[in-house]
Design brief:
Elements (H helix, E strand, L loop, with lengths): L1 H36 L16 H21 L2 H5 L6 H16 L10 H11 L1 H27 L4 E6 L4 E3 L6 H4 L4 E6 L2 E5 L1 H5 L3 H5 L11 E6 L1 H42 L20 H22 L4 H24 L8 H19 L2 H19 L3 H30 L14 H57 L3 H33 L7 E4 H11 L1 H7 L2 E5 L6 E4 L1 H18 L5 E8 L3 E9 L8 H5 L17 H11 L3 E7 L2 E11 L3
Parallel strand pairs: 7-9
Antiparallel strand pairs: 1-2, 1-5, 3-4, 3-5, 6-8, 8-12, 9-10, 10-12, 11-12
């Protein structure tokens, strides 16, 4: 009974000390984190004066570094724009970056000498170099004004800086004697620096906030800085307060660290035993985990905790810190048990694997058949030779490895071809390396991709045909059904007013049916390529201007505002006037139907050299929740409904008409922005 009482007492003591260790470890971590997040500098504890502190050095450095950059480098916007602030190093970096781009482009000819390639680079990239220089200068201008705005934020600090031509100051003071009247100042002039009070000179951070001045020209550049009494009266109490906080955090850290060390040492001494006299080590469930896995988990937990504190949950770290520390400390104590038991290495996964391999080999040689022994000797002999000789055996091993790798690659290609032959077009043949087999596998994969694309294209074509038949039947049947219905009503109706109303509906539905059949016929002709095309020289801007003018009433009714942008010089395209206008008219019709009312429509004409690009941009009134490919399908509408009066053939007809004029028709969707682009061959001006 006394024995169990002693065991229970020892267990309670261990648990209590373990909890104390966790509390102390958590407190130590909390003290370190608080010092880091509150930017507490322990060095301030050993400093007696504010002017020796890092806080004063930071205040001084921020101002002096800013002023030194302005007076020593940027000076003014005009100075920057003149290019004088671009150093040879900046220009060399720009040119090297662009030359690397040139080396990776198609313009680089490896058959030419480096000198010839550099000459080509200088010709082709001259504008790009100048553009990069201008970008760098603009960035320096932005930095210049950012530094100026930084200076405007300083209150309580008076400064004056000049290089003899440019002056930066926040007061009317410009004489050294005027700055010397303040209670604290720093004067840099004519190879000399005058600092007051003397504690500033004794600061260990003196070089930290004065080294920027050493980059200036001492013969022309001067910097005067003085600190107002109101500024010092505000900063000194703040520094004293931060110093007291730093002392508090340091004391907290020392107390918790000492508590953790004492409790951890005690746990190391008693872990695994019920008393100090007992020699046997007792293991529990957690101790069955392999030691190498134990170490990996502890390292991962600590790394995860550090990452959590630094990057993610530094405001909520206490929620996960205690569980992580408990698990990590338990695993560390488990390692201590195995150290005491002299089983630290034996109880590892690596050791157990090596042991089982050794025992298996030993068992084969002790009890296995002669054939198995011969096989193992054949395998083991080269290993023994490789362990004793270093030239010929290694070469043999590499040759054998290379041969086996090639055989393996060949077998993989053979199996892959067999799978592809059996219809698995999604199968990829993966072969490592860059040799012939790798190239052969890549070629077979390319053939497979081509077959897959062909099959997918055929499937898509069949699907589109089915959808076309379905949609045509639906769109034609709707007005046709209405016509049949109203004809039947006319047969039995005697009221003249109702007859007139029915006739009006019949007129609308018949026109709708005619529109559908006409558009369908036109789409079929355009896509088949049987439509006659007469290419001629067309002034695209005049065509667009005339079209916008003719649609004035529709534009006013839709409340849309059209913005046309085009080059100053006339541009001509090679196209069929009627077919081109039909394509543009379809786009206008699409805009009137689906554009957001009272919004702007942008039409841009761009000269791309050999092509003319006409871009139509508008904001859709409907959510464009379908892909570009779907929008180009026939009978597809942007609102995903069939309630509008369009036929759904507009974009398809426009694409086909532009295609037979040797142009390109593309559309893009970005949120609610709809963009249609027409590329047409350009005719050069005479």
């Amino acid at each position: 009974m006394r024995k169990w009482r002693n065991i229970s007492h020892a267990l309670i003591t261990k648990v209590g000390v373990f909890l104390i260790a966790i509390v102390c470890l958590t407190g130590t971590a909390k003290a370190i984190i608080n010092m880091e997040f509150n930017e507490v500098h322990l060095s301030s504890i050993y400093q007696d004066n504010y002017f020796e502190s890092r806080a004063f050095a930071n205040e001084s450095y921020s101002l002096i570094a800013t002023v030194a950059q302005l007076i020593g480098k940027y000076k003014s916007e005009e100075h920057i724009l003149s290019g004088k602030t671009l150093t040879e190093e900046d220009i060399r970096e720009i040119e090297e970056n662009l030359y690397n781009d040139f080396r990776n482009s198609y313009r680089y000819n490896p058959n030419l000498s480096e000198v010839e390639n550099k000459r080509i680079y200088q010709e082709k990239y001259a504008d790009a170099i100048n553009s990069k220089k201008e970008e760098s200068i603009k960035e320096q201008v932005r930095e210049f004004y950012r530094l100026l705005s930084t200076l405007e934020a300083y209150e309580g600090i008076v400064f004056y800086a000049s290089d003899g031509e440019y002056v930066f100051s926040n007061s009317k003071l410009n004489k050294k004697e005027q700055f010397e009247s303040f209670g604290a100042y720093m004067l840099f002039e004519d190879y000399q620096q005058k600092l007051y009070p003397n504690e500033v000179k004794e600061s260990q951070y003196l070089d930290y906030f004065t080294h920027e001045v050493e980059k200036l020209n001492p013969q022309t550049d001067v910097i005067y800085v003085a600190f107002k009494e109101s500024f010092l009266q505000q900063k000194m109490p703040e520094w004293e307060k931060d110093k007291a906080i730093a002392k508090s955090f340091l004391n907290e850290f020392i107390v918790f660290l000492a508590g953790f060390i004492l409790s951890f040492v005690y746990l190391i001494m008693v872990i695994g035993r019920t008393s100090f006299k007992e020699k046997e080590i007792h293991f529990h469930v957690i101790d069955k985990l392999y030691n190498d896995l134990n170490i990996v988990i502890v390292v991962c937990l600590i790394s995860m905790w550090i990452a959590m504190i630094v990057e993610v949950l530094h405001d909520m770290y206490m929620l996960l810190t205690i569980p992580i520390f408990i698990i990590a400390l338990l695993m560390i104590l488990s390692l201590v048990k195995h150290i005491k038991n002299i089983s630290l290495f034996k109880h590892t996964l690596i050791y157990q694997i090596l042991k089982k391999v050794f025992l298996s080999v030993k068992n084969v040689f002790d009890n296995g058949s002669m054939g198995v022994k011969i096989v193992m000797l054949v395998i083991g002999y080269p290993l023994v030779v490789a362990a004793t000789f270093f030239v010929f055996p290694i070469t043999m091993g590499l040759a054998a490895w290379f041969a086996m790798r090639k055989v393996k690659s060949f077998n993989r290609i053979k199996e892959g071809v067999e799978q592809i032959k059996n219809g698995d077009l999604h199968h990829r043949i993966e072969v490592d390396g860059k040799g012939e087999f790798s190239q052969l596998a890549a070629n077979i994969n390319s053939i497979t991709d081509g077959l897959k694309k062909s099959v997918d294209s055929e499937i898509k074509s069949e699907r589109l045909k089915t959808e076309l038949i379905t949609n045509v039947s639906h769109d034609i049947r709707t007005p046709l059904t209405s016509i049949i219905t109203y004809v039947d009503l006319l047969k039995i109706e005697n009221d003249p007013e109702m007859i007139a109303e029915y006739v009006d509906v019949l007129d609308q539905k018949s026109k709708r049916l005619k529109l559908l059949t006409d558009d369908l016929f036109e789409a079929a002709k355009a896509s088949s390529g049987s439509m006659p095309v007469q290419l001629e020289r067309i002034d695209i801007v005049s065509l667009l201007t005339q079209g916008i003018g003719e649609m004035g009433e529709k534009i006013e009714a839709s409340l849309l505002e059209f913005k046309l942008a085009y080059p100053t010089e006339k541009v001509y395209v090679k196209a069929d006037g009627k077919l081109l206008w039909r394509s543009i008219e379809n786009l206008f019709s699409n805009i009137f139907k689906y554009a957001q009312p009272a919004s702007r429509v942008y039409i841009d004409v761009e000269d791309l050299g050999n092509e003319i690009l006409v871009t139509f941009k508008n904001i859709s009134a409907y959510e464009l929740n379908i892909s570009v490919d779907e929008l180009m399908e026939r009978f597809k509408r942007g609102d995903e409904s069939r309630s509008s009066q369009g036929t759904g053939l507009g974009l398809s007809i426009a694409e086909s008409l532009i295609h037979i004029q040797h142009g390109k028709f593309l559309i893009q969707v970005d949120g609610d922005l709809f963009k249609a682009m027409i590329y047409l061959p350009k005719i050069q001006n005479d």
